[in-house]
Design brief:
Elements lengths: L31 H8 L6 H19 L3 E6 L3 E3 L7 E3 L5 H12 L3 E7 L21 E4 L2 E4 L1 H19 L3 E6 L2 H15 L6 E5 L6 E2 L24 E2 L4 H8 L4 E8 L5 H12 L3 E6 L6 E5 L6 E4 L2 H5 L5 H24 L1
Parallel strand pairs: 1-4, 1-8, 4-7, 8-11, 11-12
Antiparallel strand pairs: 2-3, 5-6, 9-10, 12-13, 13-14
Helix pairs in contact: 2-5, 3-9
Bound molecules: ligand PMT.
């Protein structure tokens, strides 16, 4: 028999009574995020994408025991028409995301690379989006196509890393184009990564649109200039801030790193701190558009701001700042895993 309890739940609480000074308890409201998903259709391919991500995650949970990072990369579009001729875009070539993904792979992580379709990809980024045509990397010798000797040594290094990622099934490429596709895909992947618990890491480098045109207001066909008197006035709605959903519900045990992009250096740190307070996640990496390849700042709630900078010499020699950023992020992720596991045992 259990020891005698000093309370009974069936006893009424006689000291409470009607109190008209307390305002009525409002009916539960839908959050902006829930309203968004109710009012917007998911992309048709979402189930297929979800199966692919699940398979990748299960593979690593069972076989490799690698930590898994979701890297988001590139800008989202906001279509203005259903049959889209015009859209609003967000700035990002995908350099930060694609470069970071390579360093995560080199440091033993499995990477889900959620990227704007046709933006830069890990490994191929070295040869795409350059002023060289891809044929410039080749020459003809003895009636055969060969790799141009000027590029061959460097290409061999990249090729080996690419093959290693492929052979170990450590890189999964998942595309998006519109902000709606991005949000649904982020939610779906996050919920799958819930299974990975603390070993999941979110590295949100994509430039996500802050404004969008709801599906209910989107014309089906190309906007006609004659019908609007030659002017185009667009009334955009704010995109709900999904980061709090990610932190609280979709993947609460994961470590979350977001980026803050500004062009005015006097507000960068303040905006990064605001993001931390608002979303309660672990790390904001601040960067300025003008200097993003040379310096970034790590902003957290419990440590002084930490700048990571390349020297002019390193920058001239084409060193990549992600080579320093990623080990620093991984170190924090390892600490996060350790702390959370210790807390669980208490
Ligand atoms: O690709 P590159 O040319 O190399 O450029 C890299 C970069 C400058 C784009 C990158 O380093 C960067 O700073 N990315 C984030 C840019 C940004 O626009 O952040 P934001 O202020 O929109 O959003 C901040 C964070 O909140 C983001 O990590 C985003 O995932 C998240 N967010 C944003 C909007 C939204 N509705 N929900 C969100 O959760």
């Amino acid at each position: 028999m259990s020891p005698k309890k000093s309370f009974h739940t069936s006893n009424p609480e006689t000291d409470t009574a009607i109190d008209r000074t307390i305002p009525d308890f409002p009916a539960a409201q839908l959050s902006d995020e829930d309203r968004y998903f109710r009012a917007h259709k998911p992309p048709k391919y979402l189930d297929e994408l979800s199966a692919e991500v699940s398979e990748f995650v299960e593979f690593h949970l069972k076989n490799s025991k690698k930590n898994i990072v979701l890297v988001t990369s590139g800008g989202t579009t906001v279509p203005l028409e259903n049959n889209t001729v015009r859209f609003i875009d967000n700035f990002s070539a995908g350099t930060r995301g694609a470069t970071s993904a390579e360093y995560f792979l080199e440091n033993g992580y499995a990477v889900i690379f959620l990227h704007r379709e046709f933006s830069l990809l890990p490994y191929s980024r070295h040869y795409s989006h350059t002023t060289n045509c891809f044929l410039d990397y080749m020459t003809e010798e003895d009636n055969k196509v060969q790799i141009n000797r000027d590029f061959a040594d460097e290409m061999l290094v990249v090729l080996r890393k690419y093959n290693a990622a492929k052979e170990s099934n450590s890189l999964l490429l998942i595309p998006f184009t519109t902000v709606n596709q991005y949000l649904y895909t982020l939610k779906t992947i996050s919920e799958i990564l819930h299974r990975v618990d603390t070993r999941a890491l979110f590295y949100l480098a994509a430039a996500v649109s802050d404004f969008f045109l709801p599906q209910s207001k989107m014309p089906q066909h190309k906007i006609q200039s004659q019908e609007s008197g030659g002017k185009l006035i667009i009334d955009l709605e704010p995109v709900p801030k999904f980061l709090s959903r990610l932190v609280d519900n979709w993947a609460p045990a994961a470590m979350i790193v977001s980026f803050k992009l500004e062009t005015d250096n006097t507000i960068l740190i303040k905006k990064a701190k605001n993001a931390l307070t608002r979303y309660q996640h672990q790390l904001v990496i601040g960067n300025l558009l003008q200097t993003r390849k040379k310096e970034v700042v790590f902003v957290t709630t419990d440590e002084p701001d930490q700048w990571i900078k390349l020297t002019d010499e390193e920058y001239k020699n084409k060193e990549e700042i992600e080579k320093i950023i990623i080990p620093a992020v991984i170190e924090r992720h390892h600490k996060w895993i350790k702390q959370r596991n210790e807390n669980k045992q208490k």
